Amino acid sequence: MVHYGKTPQKRSFVKNGLQILLVEDNPGDAILIKEALRESVYRDAQLVTAACLSDALSYANQTFLLVLLDLGLPDSEGLETVRKINQYFKDGVLIVLTGLDDEKVAVETLREGAQNYLNKNEIDFKILERTIRFSLERHRIIQQLKSVDKQLLESKYFLEQAQAIAQIGSWVYDIKNDHLEWSAGIYKIFGLGTELKASTELFYSLVYNEDLETLKINEEKVITGIEPDSMYFRFVRQNDQAIRHALSEYRYETNEHGERLKVFGIVKDITMQKKAEEEREKFIKEIVQRHKDLEQFTYIVSHNLRLPVANILGFAEILKMEGITASEREEFIELIINSVFKLDEVVKDLNQVLQIRQAIHEKKELVVLEQVVLDILESIRQILQSENVAIHMDFAKAPALFSIKSYLYSILYNLISNSLKYRQRDLQPIIHVHSEIQNDLFRIIYKDNGTGIDMSKYRQDVFGLYKRFHSKVEGKGLGLYMVKTQVESLGGKISLSSEPNKGVVFTLEFEWTI
Amino acid sequence: MLTRFMLVDDDPVSNKICDFTIKKVIAGAEVKCFQYPAEGLDFIRENYGNVSLKPTILILDINMPEINGWLFLEKFMQFDKSVHDQFSIYIVSTSIDHTDRERAKAHPMVKDYLQKPLSSTMLRELFIKPN
Q1: Positions in chain A short of pLDDT 50
Q2: What is the pLDDT of residues B109-128, one digit of tens each?
Q3: Hey, which residues does A49 pair with through a beta bridge?
């Protein structure tokens, strides 16, 4: 019988809608529980009763805060029941009702997600109240823990993502316990499987040989306590054997006595930045060199223009003097005319050089090198015969280049012409030209056995404008300058190695893109 | 008064102008021209070591291949002081580059920097002492 006034009135603890689902097939037990509920602080809860599992599941679309579940149902038993209920009433707090024999099973249900269990034979409203309150609280705490867990996982995930994007990994070294830990980022940077244990030995095994010494000295510093720093080193990434560049920075955690407890560090893969830096430096060097070339060009041209002008002025002044004989006058006029011609020559040379610098608008085509050389040889056939010149060419490895035919013709023509001019008197002139592709570069290598150039003396001036080194041989000093200008206007580079009487070796390099 | 001149310039035309102008402006001047600086140095070495003093005006070009004006001066500095004392050195050049001018004026052995062409007015001002 229900007696409302039996117990002192307690405040009802039902917050907005405490729904309770009671799954109990035994009507007597059901009544017992209902009575206990009515006397408890949960008397205002909405109570729904089901007599078997399938009944209970028919209420699956409703939300119940609390499910009181009898284990011995007609259409389900024990743990299976619990599982089913959990499946359909995920947000509900589950309290299992047991008879005398079910206690062991009841304990197991706690593992399946039940919050608590009640022995039906011992139910009174006080026990019921306590159990429900405890279970609700326990459920709340567990939910909180789950949420915190979830947040932690998310944080960890964010950190991992951030590290992956920034190509950074972090590590912690516990000094006292000699324990090292790596973040996922470190494993990724080093190309290691995450199953491997973090250790300094493993780390050292990756480091590039040359950098190992410096690194070990630095590691000492880290532990013995010289101020934190950053270390740069190269390492071999394990999953693809690529050589990468890294920067490591670290700081310490100390206790209140200033003793170092832990070291926190990061490792950053800076290979991209390193490469960019190297590119930039290369670029700057090239620009500085081009600037120097231009300055030299200006200086030389101005001198070569001014000289004939100065001479013309000098003679003009002389011609104004008194007491010049007729033959002297004639001589001086002749010399003035010569100077004018010289002036004209310089202007024409200048024109030619400037034209080369500008004329990249000329059409590029696939130039077959062997054909170019044969054309040159044909044009100087007689000299080749009279000088008994031997020319060996091998363009098999790299037969053709996408470029401007007339420039390549002019370049090779100049080189061959120089070889003839600077041959050694008693030797048969022998010339070798071959081409190859190396490191994405198309290279043409030209050798002769002529008088060569003393590079230790003239390295700077070899390709210089109007620079000459053999005063006994005719020439303006323009040939190699033109060759260099043409090579460079094709986007290439030319270098020379030579020793006196050992001939020359010119190496021309062009970008090779197919 | 015998005025001795030595011209060192790789351009024979410049030398000719200089030679002619000097002789026209300064009566009785003795002029020796050297197209190859090495030969000029040899000449100094052979002829200026003796006791007899021969005050000479040296007009030296800067832009010469192999041995340029600066290198010539370096080698000249290696001679004895008695040799140095006999020369008044003037640097001559087509260059309008002011660093060349400054460098010449700063050199202890160089009296002045002249720009080509050497005119008769320049020569008169420099070498004919006003009475």
Answers
A1: 1, 9-13
A2: 899 999 888 888 888 888 87
A3: A22
What is the C-alpha end-to-end distance of chain B, expressed in Å?
13
For residues A96 and A425, give the distance between their C-alpha atoms in angstroms, rounded to a whole number: 114
Contact status, residue A458 vs residue A376, Cβ threshold 8 Å: no
**What is the C-alpha to C-alpha distance for residues A149 and A454, in angstroms, rounded to an integer?**
77
Total-model pTM: 0.55
Name the residue type at position A234: R
Question: Which residue reads 């008879």 in tokens?
Answer: A99
**Candidates A295, A298, A305, A318, partner chain B, best to mutate (most B CBs within 10 A):** A318
pLDDT in tens, A236-279: 999 999 999 999 888 888 888 888 888 889 999 999 999 999 98
What's the burial of B43, exposed, middle or buried (CB within 10 Å: 0-12/13-18/19+)? Answer: middle
Whether residue A314 and residue B14 make contact (CB cut-off 8 A), yes or no, is: yes
Q: Is B11 in Cβ contact with A311 (below 8 Å)?
A: yes
Query: DSSP letters along B8-24, please?
Result: E-S-HHHHHHHHHHHHH
CB distance A171 to A262 below 8 Å: no
- Contact yes or no for A391/A373 (Cβ under 8 A): yes
In order of A81, B22, B23, the CA distances from B124 in angstroms are 128, 9, 11
A448 contacts A428 by C-beta, under 8 angstroms: no
Nearest chain A alpha carbon to B11 = A307
Which of B16, B65, B119 minimises the CB distance to A317?
A: B119
Tell me if chain A has a CB within 8 Å of the CB of B17: yes
With beta carbons less than 8 A apart as the criterion, state whether A342 and A308 touch. yes
> How does strand A390-394 pair with strand A430-438?
parallel
Residues of chain A contacting residue B16, judged by C-beta atoms under 8 Å apart = 335
pLDDT at position A474? 67
Angle at A377 between CA A373 and CA A383, to 5 degrees: 150
ω before B37 within 30° of 0 (cis)?
no
Q: What are A275-301's pLDDT values in tens digits?
A: 999 989 988 988 888 788 788 778 777
Using an 8 Å Cβ cutoff, are B97 and B120 in contact? Answer: no
- Closest CB from A302, A318, A468 relative to B21: A318
ipTM above 0.90, yes or no: no
Residues with Cβ within 8 Å of A310's Cβ and at least 6 positions away in sequence, in order, are: B14, B94, B115, B116, B117
The token pair at A188 is 């990724």
